[in-house]
Protein 1
Amino acid sequence: MGLLKFPLLALLAASLPAFAAEDNAALIEQGAYVARAGDCVACHRTAENGGPEMAGGYVIDSPMGKIISSNITPSKAYGIGDYTEQQLADALRKGVNAKGQHLYPAMPYTSYQGMSDQDIHALYVYLQQGVKPVDQPVPETKLAFPFNIRQLMFGWNLVFLDSQGFVRKPGASEQVNRGQYLVDNLAHCEACHTPRNVLMAEDNSQYLAGAKLGGWVAPNIT
Ligand code: HEC
Ligand code: HEC
C-alpha cells in the first residue's frame, strides 16, 4: 500500500504546481486582452511618451480642470499593489478607490460598471502579476472648488451611475450582445462618442451621435 501510494502522491505533487502555473499564464494573457480592450493604457500612461505603461501621471483636460491619471502598476507604495480584487472591482464599477475616495468620471467607471466578474478577475491577475511595479508617485489632482470635493461625486453617481451591470438584449444573438458589451462597457466607445449634458453625464437620447472632446471631435458613429 505505502509503496503504491508514494509514487502517486509524488506525481500529484509534481504536476499540481505545473497546472497552476499554466492556468495563471492563461489568466494573465486573458487579463492583458481585457486591459487592451478597455484601453487602460490610453489614460494610465505616463506624461512623457515611452514611459512605463500603467504608471500614470498623464494629464486629462476636463471641463472641471486637469485630472491626473493614477499609477495602476502593482507598486505597493504608489500603485495598486495592495488592492484586493474587490477593491479593483469597486474602482471599475463604482468609481471608488481603495482609500474610499470617489474618483472623477474621467475614469470611465460609468462604462466599466458593466464589466463581467470574469473579465475583472483576469484583469486583476494581469495587473498584479503581468505588469512591472513602478515605484513612482504621480502629482495630485487639484481641481478648483467645488470640484475638489470628491464627495460631490456621491450625489452625481446617485443620479447618473447606472449600476445594474451589463443587461443582455433578450432575443439578440451572442455576437450582438458581445458587441454591445464592448461598445457600452469594456471598450467604452460610448464614453467618447455620446455627447454629454451640462452635468457631464451622457445624453442617451443622442447615443453614439458624436461629441466634442477637448480639442477633438468624436464623430457620429451611428
Ligand atoms: C479615459 C481615461 C481612463 C481610462 C480609459 C482608464 N482610466 Fe483608470 N483612472 C483614470 C483617471 C483620470 C483616474 C484618477 C481619477 C481621480 O483622480 O479621481 C483613474 C483612476 C483609476 C484607479 C484608482 C486608483 C487609485 O487608487 O486611486 C484604478 C484602480 C483605475 N483607474 C484602473 C483602471 C483600469 C484597470 C482601466 C482599464 C480597464 C482604467 N483605469 C482605464 C482614467 C482612466
Ligand atoms: C477616448 C475617446 C474615444 C473612445 C473610447 C473611442 N473613440 Fe472612436 N473616435 C474618437 C475620436 C476623437 C475620433 C476622431 C479621430 C479623428 O478625428 O482623427 C474617433 C473616430 C472614430 C471613428 C471614425 C469615424 C469617422 O467618421 O471618421 C470610428 C468608426 C470610431 N471612432 C469608432 C469607435 C469605436 C467602435 C470605439 C469603441 C471600440 C471607439 N471609437 C472608442 C474618440 C474615441
Note: Residues 35, 38-40, 42-44, 60, 67, 69-70, 72, 80, 88, 91, 97-98, 103-104, 106-108, 123, 141 surround heme C (ligand 1) (CB under 6 Å).
Protein 2
Amino acid sequence: MALKLYGSVPNANVFKALIAAEYVGESIESVPVELGTQNKTPEFLKLNPAGKVPVLVTPQGPIFESNAIAKYVSKLRPAVELYPAKLQDQALVDQWVDFSQNEIRGYVQEWVSMRAGRMPYDKTREGAVKGKAMEGLKTLNNYLASRTYLVGNKVTVADIIVACNLLGGIQNVLTSGFLKPFPHVTRYFWTQVNQPEFKKVIGEVTQAAKEMPVSEKPAAAPKAEKKKEEPKPKKEAAPAPAADEDDEPKPAPKPKNPLDLLPPSPMVMDDWKRLYSNTKVKDFREVAIKGFWASYDPAGYSLWFCEYKYTEENTASFMTMNKVSGFLQRMDFVRKHAFAKMAILEEKAGGPFHISGVWLFRGTEIPKQVLDESYDMELYDWAKVDVNDSEQKERVNDLLEEPDTIDGKTVVEVKCFK
Ligand SMILES: N[C@@H](CCC(=O)N[C@@H](CS)C(=O)NCC(=O)O)C(=O)O
C-alpha cells in the first residue's frame, strides 16, 4: 500500500518528504488538502490535531511535522543511507535540521510573513529577524566553506530539509545581494536544488530579484490568517497579488546591455564560436587556435584565467562537474558576450578535483553585470591573461584544445560555455 502524503504543492514542507521519496525510490501518493477548510475537518484533525499539513499516513498510523515525515521516508530504505547509519552522523543530521529550522527558517518566515501581510508589519522587528537570520546563515556558510554536503560525503536527509528550509526565503527575500556574504550557502542551495531528485519534485527555482514588497493589505485577523497557506514556493517567484496593488515603482524598461554599446570590434564572438565548434579535432591547433589569435582583439575583448578557491571540497568528480555545470547554466545571461572552457583536473587519482578555466569576455574587464549577478564569481580567483606572455598564451591554447593533461594534472572533463 502506497504511503499517503496529505498537503498540496507547492509547499516546501510537503516537498521534503517527496524529495526523500525520490532518493530512496519509494512511491508516495500525494493528497491535496485545501487549507482553511479541509485541514479543519474532524477527519483531518484525527490525522493531525494541529490541523496542519503535511501529514503522512503509514500502515501504522499518521505522522505529522514535515521533518519527522522526511526522516521516516529516508529510513524506509536503510541501504541508501539517506538517513545515515552511524549514531554520530544521525546526530549531525538532527543538528542541522534543528539549526536550520530554529536559527534560519523561523526568522526568514517571520520576515516573509510580515511583508506578505500575514502578520502586522513592524520595521524594528523586521530588522531584528533579518539580523538573526544573518547570524544563522553565517554559521551555515562557515561550515559549508569546505563541504559539499552537511553530513559526510553524500546527500542525506539533512540536505533535503535544509535546502527546503531555505527555499521560501530564496524565492521571496533572500536576494543574491542579501546572500552575497554567504557564497557557500548560495552554492550549496543551488547545487542541491539542481539535483534530479529535487528538480523532479520542485521544478525550476527562481530567486527573488528584489526583496518582496510590504503588502498594503493589513495583516489578516488571526482566524483568516489560519486560512492562508504558508508561502507557496513556485507561485512566490512571481510577485504576490498584493505587490501589484502597492506603490512600488514599476520596473523601468530594461536598459540596453552596456556590452552592446561598446565600440565595434573586428573580432566577432559568434564567428569564433562557429570556428571553435566546426573545426575537426585533428586540425584544432592549425585552424581554430591560429584563427583565434589571428582575430583576437585586446581592445574589444579580454581573456581571464579562473581557479576554484575551495579545491579541497571537491572530493567527488561528479559533484565537481555539477558545480561547473551549475555555474555555466547561471551564466546564460551573458552567453552572447562570453565564451569559456572549464576543466576539471585531477592531481592524484581520486581527487580532490581542481577547476581551472579560461573565459573570453567582451570588453577589457570582466563585465560588471557578471560580477553583480553571478555569485559563483566569488568562488574563483580571477587573473587577466597577459597575451604578450607566451606561457600564458600556451595555457589558453591547452584549455581550448583539451589535451590529456593541463598544468601537469590529468584532465577529467572539460566543459565549454559557448
Ligand atoms: N512545523 C510544521 C509546520 C506546518 C505548517 O505550518 N503547515 C502549514 C502549511 S506549510 C499549514 O498547514 N497551515 C494551515 C494552518 O495553519 O491552518 C511542519 O514542519 O510540518
Note: DSSP finds 16 helices and ten strands in the chain.
